[in-house]
Design the sequence.
């Protein structure tokens, strides 16, 4: 099958999978994935639950204006943060407070956030690489490796100065939905050989992959990971364009990937893909 790149300026990109070819998926199951810029996604599951990842929205130059008000996300059921950098963590505490839900992230990052009083400890559960949680009925999240760094920068209310605190090790997430559909949110990462193991062990259907470069994989490295190791049905590029140093583009990814059975869905912020 020839690689398909979807770059049309549509408000909605609807993609219907041949679900019968994937064991364990119901014919009528639907998953909606909305990209909000950088690594922030709103995932609506077949059971109607809403998952938010790495919410940097208010200050993100790519966030559609309507989503700069956090209430526009609607009711959020699950909040996942891959590491402590502000372009992933920034709006997570406010979303946790607004929805009265926990913030799931690296255990040491959450411990720092609890000690700093960013959220109550009850809203900062701790887990780590290899750990699997069942935060909602029918939904399973496993923390996997990401090759990156993580610190938590927080403004001291008494001094007015930013402080750097322990952010734990960065994570990726394998998110398994009610119908068995699996999403691999890679977080921020460079290439590492165990991507092959992750793909072979967890069999993700959709991979959310960073392509910006400088801080993460660029298009060439991401294409190598897709072609040689991950081999998913679908990928959505992320973590590019919001920072001048994140210069990678979906077009460069497609060129580097060449002919492939993987479909690259190049969403614009505010666009959705449906599976």
Sequence:
């Amino acid at each position: 099958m020839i690689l398909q790149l979807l770059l049309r300026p549509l408000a909605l990109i609807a993609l219907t999978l041949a679900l019968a070819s994937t064991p364990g998926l119901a014919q009528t199951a639907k998953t909606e994935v909305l990209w909000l810029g950088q690594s922030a996604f709103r995932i609506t599951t077949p059971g109607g639950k809403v998952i938010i990842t790495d919410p940097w929205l208010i200050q993100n130059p790519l966030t559609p204006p309507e989503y700069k008000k956090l209430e526009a996300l609607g009711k959020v059921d699950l909040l996942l943060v891959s590491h402590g950098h502000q372009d992933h963590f920034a709006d997570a505490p406010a979303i946790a407070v607004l929805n009265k839900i926990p913030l799931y992230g690296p255990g040491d990052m959450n411990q720092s956030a609890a000690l700093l009083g960013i959220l109550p400890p009850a809203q900062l559960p701790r887990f780590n690489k290899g750990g699997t949680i069942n935060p909602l009925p029918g939904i399973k999240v496993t923390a996997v490796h990401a090759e990156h760094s993580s610190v938590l920068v927080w403004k001291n209310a008494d001094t007015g100065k930013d402080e750097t605190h322990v952010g734990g090790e960065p994570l990726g997430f394998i998110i398994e939905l009610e119908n068995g559909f699996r999403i691999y949110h890679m977080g921020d990462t460079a290439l590492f050989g165990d991507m092959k193991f992750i793909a072979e062990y967890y069999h993700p259907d959709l991979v959310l992959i960073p392509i910006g470069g400088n801080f993460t994989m660029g298009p060439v490295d991401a294409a190598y990971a897709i072609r040689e190791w991950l081999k998913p049905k679908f990928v959505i590029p992320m973590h590019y364009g919001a920072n001048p140093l994140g210069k990678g583009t979906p077009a460069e990814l497609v060129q580097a990937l060449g002919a492939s059975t993987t479909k690259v869905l190049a969403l614009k912020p505010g666009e959705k893909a449906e599976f």
Summary: The CA atoms of residues 43 and 145 lie 21 Å apart. The first strand starts at residue 5 and ends at 6. Residues 219-230 form the longest helix (12 residues).
